[in-house]
Batch of 4 targets.
Target 1
Amino acid sequence: MILITGSSGHIGNVLVRKLVEQGEEVILMTKSGEKPLWLNHLDVAVRKANLNDPEAVDEAIKGSSVVFHLAGIISISSFDSTELHEINVEGTQYVVDACIRHGVKRLIYTSSVHALPERDYGEVISERAEFNASKLFGAYARTKAEATRRVLEGVKKGLDAVICFPSGVMGPHDHRGSEAGRLIKDYANNRLPVYINGAYNFVDVRDVVNGLLLAWNHGKKGEGYILSGEKMSLQEFFDILKSLHPQMRKPQWRIPLPVALASAWFVESVCRIISVKPIFTVYAIKVLQSNCNMPSKKASLELGYSARPVRQSIADSLEWFKENKLIS
């Protein structure tokens, strides 16, 4: 039996669909004990457990032979939060402990490229790294680095685990709204008239899921694999969107970086007080300015991983949002 945490998320729900399609016996671990609405039609079992409840996590994992751990909080906030640490770090620790206790044959943990140490421009970001949260900027990056370190500590205790590091995920079945998906929707709906210079490494959710399955079947115990796609500037990203969705008004004004950082810090602070999620934060802006040279060479050579062109992913995302009436 294969247990999946985080099945309501973008990667998680696409992974569930793929495993069911392949005829696997799948169990979802969810907070509510019910299937996500968009997976209601699938024949899967459900076990109720919240990641902050170690006893419930232990009971949910009991009897599973393989665990895909994807559940977590994705955040572009610059500020640390107790919930982020409890779910991303301590929740992962509970999963690791349960997998060891119940003799799970393999744990496939979905980390993030942001858990990897940053490198200067011209250098290559690789999987060979020490995971030191104190050296990273951004609460999300720090929690994913610490969680990754906890998984590797589990490997030292005998756990068979493989770690995957996806870059910026996009593509269809984006029910909860990924960061890249939110960008597509907001610009396609003419909600954001401004932009900043920057670039990111985008990857299709379907390719990430394929990478997770390859890691399960071919990954080496204790190893990590970057699952990246293609580096693309925001300007290129919007040019492709405009060519695919002519009704869209391209952002007219570019905000200078110092102004963007100052504005983001102010807006983020206000949004934190009123509990509203901002689209741009200091952390997000710094990510878009950072080195995103993170090739998936290791995954390609050892697993047979490959990624489709970003243009195709943007087109498929746009079509999915239109079909689901999320873009006018």
Note: The domain at 2-176+202-229+293-307 is CATH 3.40.50.720 (Rossmann fold).
Target 2
Amino acid sequence: MSERGEKGRRSIQPGRQRADFEDGVVVFLIGMRFNSIWRIDQWLPVFLTMPRMLRELNQNRELGLLHDASWFGWRRVMVVQYWKDMDHLMRYATSRDNEHLPAWTAFNRRARSATSVGIWHEAYEVSPESSHIIYRNMPSFGMGKAAGVSEAADDAIA
């Protein structure tokens, strides 16, 4: 995917901005690792569940997802997600009415006998007081894309 986006350089916001959020936000990192790259039969079903979950979350914003971005590397996939709060994240993770819980249950059943794929996640509650988020000459990105940005003075620390 191009960093320029659909609008090219026009999508770049010149100057210095900071993420503009008053309430806390949850940053959720989730990923998978291909432990045995040749065992496509074991990792492909896991790999294909994330697009379904992201589609569901992006089509139903009331579930609490604010923004997501995917990153791909050799043997690794990571999705960075920004959530309204931990309650929304946990409600989605444990709901029988959404994509996650059935996928999680199926993975755990398969993972007992197959180690060809690993998954992980980390969740962090971030408050404006405990964060430092600055962008310069960037298109909408990360927390700024999730929460919006405001101008930051050049000498601003936070």
Note: The helical segments are 40-59, 86-94, 100-111, 142-147.
Target 3
Amino acid sequence: MDGMNVVGDLFGDGKMFLPQVVKTARVMKKAVAILQPIIEKEKASTGASSSNGKILMATVKGDVHDIGKNIVGVILGCNNYEVIDLGVMVPTEKILQEAIDQKVDIIGLSGLITPSLEEMVNVAKEMKNRNFEVPLMVGGATTSKVHTAVKIEPQYTEPVIHVKDASKSAQVVSALLSKTGKAAFVNKTKEEYAALRERNANKRPVVIAPISKAREKGFKIDWSQDQICTPNTMGIQVFDDYSIAEIRKFIDWTFFYQAWNLTGNYDGIETVTTAQQETEWLKKYKTENALAKAKEALKLWRDAQAMLDKIERDKMLTPKAVFGLFPANSEGDDVIVYTDESRTIEKTRFHQIREQQDKPGKETFHALSDFIAPVSSGVKDYIGGFAVTSGIGIEKWEKAYMDDHDDFSAIMLKSLADRLAEAFAELLHFRVRKEFWGYAPDEDFNTDNFIRERYRGIRPALGYPACPDHSEKRSLFDLMEVEKNVGITLTEHFSMYPNASVSGLYFAHPKAMYFGIGKIGKDQVEDLAQRKGISTDEMEKWIPINLSYR
């Protein structure tokens, strides 16, 4: 453990990188597994605990994302903390009961999708109601220091700390459990969060245009001048076991390195196969830190290729996809999907949200429905939907790695499964543009163009900036029978399981573009709720970060 403490210190100082730490943890865990009987005997005879503290971690109810949480667990383990990981989709009651039963020192919550923010608030409230006295840490892609200060901390009397990324976790835990340093750390954080709340309360209010004005200034297309491309293949198509060899060609490695805390530009890394090429490639990294990161990125790249080869060879994952192309027209801010070309029977509709955040010079308030010809135009338009996964089969292999105390391979597998899912979505979109819809038959295979989105058409994911309402996934899944066709299910908060899954819509118009909705007004929220047939309170639950009035 003395060695692991050194590793923890070096990582905290930025002198070791995450892949090195996780590999070190693998060695430690395998050694501890051998020594466990001796350790337990010693603990029994002395009554002493050999850990620095006990941390309970969980991904909150309705959310299935856990790579970041797993990495934090490894880092804390390397710093001699006992980690109790409850997994994903964990209800508040289970989190709190386990915390009591296990007598933990800290509770850590993780989440990725926006509804998870409200779950974290609920956990904090319940901790206060039950008179908990342990600190609460929160983290995950959807969390922020401001949200923690404004929404979560006021609900609980004990320390609430936002952890920006895995590299900060051990430092925060150490401060929270320090007998001499805790008070100063907590007081400093409370002062910082109080200042954030004050700044948030006093910031210039966002100007929200009335929804009627926003609709009047929606994105305009002259539909009389546009030639709509009728899809070559209408209806639903299913791919049951797609080739990993084909999918891996479409991987965008930028996000893979980010997942491993190795942000940087590693262009050309795939061409490095010899010692001489490695020497030449490394010459462009001029600082000591940049050079060290590049060397570690190259090792990680090679580890990833070896794992991809194994995934492909041993059929560890079964990539599946379903997509559909349907007759469609817009009606206001909604997109109507018809059962057939007669366009007389509505099969479903997607309720889109329109920008309302106003500022001087803003001329257009976008909604995705702007890119589909309205019913009133008389133009026959189309829309597509898709859902892909590369997570089928992952649980068996992840469990095998964890049973073998091999966190590195388990995390590598999950991070690659995520990248394969995104790559699969990109590959499928390419084929839809070129073959199945066929509006870009001459488009060439070009990975740089894919990464930079230099092609006609868009594939926005439901629950993300252009269409932030996760609950719209239910309409998509029902339309294409996603669960039956490819085995992806939705949680109560509309997170997809397996986690390594991507779904969304296809828009083919040449002017279709990505954008972010930003803040919206209560007039649109009430209108959305009415269109969807739900209460305003429920509508607000699905888009909390878009509400301008909370």
Note: DSSP finds 20 helices and 13 strands in the chain.
Target 4
Amino acid sequence: MPASGSPDRGGDLGRCRCWRRRDDGAGRARNPGHSQVTLPRIRRQDGSGGRGVLDLTDFSRRRARAALLAREAGFSAFAFVPGPNFLYLTGLEFHLMERPTVLLLTTEGRVRAIMPELERSRWRNAFPEARTFFWRDCEGYADAFRKLSATLAGPVGVEGMRMRMFEFEALRSHLPHGAVVDAEPALAKLRICKESEEVVALRRAVSISEAALDEQLETARAGDSEVEIVARLKQAMLARGAEGFAFDPIVLSGPKSADPHGTPGNRTVAPGEPLLVDFGASWGGMNADITRTFFCKHVPESSRAIYDTVLAANARGREVVGPGIACDSVDRETTAVLSESPFAEMIRHKTGHGLGLDVHEAPHVMVGNEMPLAAGMVVTIEPGLYRSGDLGVRIEDNVLITEEGAECLTRFPREAQCFG
């Protein structure tokens, strides 16, 4: 089913839209179709007054849903380390470091934890009655893991893609053989459909990102280095209310754009060269993930057909995505536009991935994933073509699956744009 907003028409293919400042009446540049989102402040679990994170009642509901998933998968509990799932279930943000911190959620919905002593106050303020095994640096954490393990009555499901070996081994050493199991297939269901508050936060993250990118097209010039553009882009996002960045922006010029996840450096952009910008703001814990490819001064004829092909593939992906459509089908339809072009050998990656508290999460829009999309899921549509030593082109949008079809949250123009 088509995404909201008409896909790029054939007449737009290959044209270079030169950036011109548009004013919103208050002296701020705006792109056509870009809208601002104003949100209320929402109290964090730890009382810090952050935005976009749900209150205690909602966290309890989330934990109840996670407990049900654990029961259905045959586990006695799930074990989480600091990261998106930990935040999703508690409203607390801890960091992976040398001090192990583990959240245990039983099938009855009971919260247990291993916590460094230095986190006692923050943890107790949020979970005063949770059975918690605190440990001190001078004592070590082995006894805390032993005591926690003794409370378990069966296999424990862990985050196979996030838990480190030393937490895994600390749990495994105190449990029967085979009692610590990768639970990623079950956990993928936990956050895959976004709640209304999460969608609101994601809209804000996208809005901030697009406004910042809009500004950078005005200021970017031939001779700017990649790292200079990164610095300005980050500052622009922060100035518009970003609470952080989904990841360190990827800004690549000229032949470096052929490396899909390259590292920005001191290389300067020259006339006729592509500038690939992959970035996103974080707001309320939710992450935007947007890519556009621009050209300095003009679009070379040698690049035009490649850009047009990626643009057509992006339009096709946004057209077919919708509820009930398998991820595999979306990938095949999108990739077909690329593979049936003269540039098939330049394909390097799948069509997209889920987006939320993590930048890359389920569902993955790729061949072989037969999972049907459902209302509440958010995915990226990001076809790309890359010719080593020459250029790369990627156009990435963030799409919300709805009951009726799909809504493209990103509104930034997709036709070829020039700067400088």
Note: Residues 10-40+195-419 form a domain with the Creatine Amidinohydrolase fold (CATH 3.90.230.10).
